[in-house]
Amino acid sequence: FISRGRLIAEGAPHDIRRALITEQVVEVSVGDVDGALQWLERAPWVEEAYLSGARLHAVLQPAWAGEDPAGTVAAQLRSAGFTDAVVVIVEATLEDVFVNLVARQEQ
Question: Residue 48: CA atoms inside 13 Å, Cβ hemisphere, count?
């Protein structure tokens, strides 16, 4: 991967995903995408939240994920008023890895 003209990661895509994203990633489908994104960005247990196509991806803090991260995130969103939220666990995509790497570079 290259960001701002600098090489930030190299290797096979599967190896990069496995090595660089060890946190749980969930995908959120919800009617109010903008509102849910803002809410997730402020949630203390979310490391990152961003659009991924028409859905949201959230990278969860490792200690918080627990046994049912998708169910817990869905319950939290529904209690915040996003009653149509559907949350599933997903494998990190190359886009997830790139967003994560760029965020690390900017810190």
Answer: 21
Check pLDDT > 60 for residue 86. yes
Backbone angles phi, psi at 103, to 5 degrees: -60, -40
| β-pair partners for 5 | none
Listed residue (63, 35, 65, 60) closest to 49, CA to CA: 60
Number of neighbours of residue 76 by Cβ within 10 angstroms: 17
Of 92, 87, 90, 23, give the one whose Cα is nearest residue 60.
Answer: 23
The C-alpha torsion from 70 through 72 and 78 to 82, rounded to 10°, is -40
Q: Are 92 and 47 spatial neighbours (Cβ–Cβ below 8 Å)?
A: no
**Confidence band, pLDDT 50/70/90 cuts, at residue 65:** low
With CA atoms as reference, report the closest residue to 25 among 104, 102, 97, 103: 97
- Distance (Å) of CA 48 to CA 5, 10, 15: 23, 22, 21
